[in-house]
Design goal:
Elements: H1 2-29, E1 44-47, E2 50-53, E3 58-64, E4 67-72, H2 78-87, E5 94-96, E6 101-104, H3 110-147, H4 152-185
Length: about 190
C-alpha cells in the first residue's frame, strides 16, 4: 500500500513540474521591452500550404537590445513570415528589406507594463490552479487508501506532505511571476 502512496506522490510531482515548466514557457512569451527571439516562439508560418514553426523556416536572432532579425532560409518565405508576424497580433511591426526582416521592439508605456505584469500574475495563478488540482487528486487518492486499510496516522502524514509539496510548487510559481513582473516594470 505504501508503494501506491509513493506512486501517487510521484504522479502529482510530475503534474506540478509540468505546471511550472508550462508557466516558464508562457512567461518567456510575455514581452519586457527587450528583444528576445523567444517572443516569436510558437509562431506558425504557412510553408507551402502547411503550418510550420518559424524556427524551422528561418533563423531568428537579435541585432541589438531592441531589434530582432528574422532571416528565412528561402527568399520566397520573406512574405509568408512577415504575414505570420502581423497575424500573430504581438504588437510588433516587421520591416522587410528584401533580404531580412527586422522587428523593432517598441518601448513599453507604463500602462502596457502594468497590463503585462497583470498578465504574468494571471499566468502564475493558472499554474497554481493546476498545482492545487494535482493536490486535490492526491488527497482523494490518500483518503481512498485510508478507507481501504492504509493506517490513518500515516494517511494524515501523507496529507501533510502533500500540502507541503503544494506549498513549495505554489511558492515557486509565485516567485517566477514576481521575477517576471520586476523585469517588466524595470525601465
Amino acid at each position: 500500500m505504501q508503494e501506491d502512496i509513493d506512486f501517487y506522490f510521484d504522479e502529482s510531482k510530475e503534474t506540478m513540474d509540468a505546471a511550472i515548466s508550462r508557466l516558464g514557457r508562457e512567461l518567456v512569451k510575455v514581452r519586457t521591452g527587450k528583444a528576445s527571439p523567444s517572443i516569436l516562439d510558437g509562431l506558425m508560418v504557412d510553408y507551402y500550404g502547411s503550418p510550420t514553426p518559424l524556427k524551422q523556416v528561418a533563423n531568428v536572432g537579435t541585432l541589438d537590445a531592441r531589434t530582432l532579425t528574422v532571416q528565412p532560409w528561402e527568399k520566397k518565405m520573406l512574405e509568408p513570415v512577415e504575414k505570420a508576424i502581423f497575424a500573430a497580433n504581438l504588437g510588433l511591426t516587421p520591416q522587410n528589406d528584401g533580404v531580412i526582416i527586422r522587428i523593432v521592439i517598441p518601448m513599453l508605456t507604463q500602462d502596457r507594463r502594468k497590463s503585462l505584469a497583470k498578465q504574468a500574475k494571471s499566468l502564475a495563478e493558472d499554474a497554481k490552479v493546476s498545482i492545487r488540482n494535482a493536490r486535490q487528486d492526491l488527497m482523494k487518492l490518500i483518503k481512498q487508501a485510508v478507507k481501504d486499510g492504509y493506517p490513518e496516522d500515516m494517511g494524515k502524514r501523507a496529507e501533510t506532505k502533500a500540502q507541503d509539496l503544494t506549498n513549495t510548487y505554489s511558492k515557486k510559481a509565485e516567485e517566477m511571476a514576481t521575477e517576471k513582473e520586476k523585469d517588466i516594470m524595470t525601465i
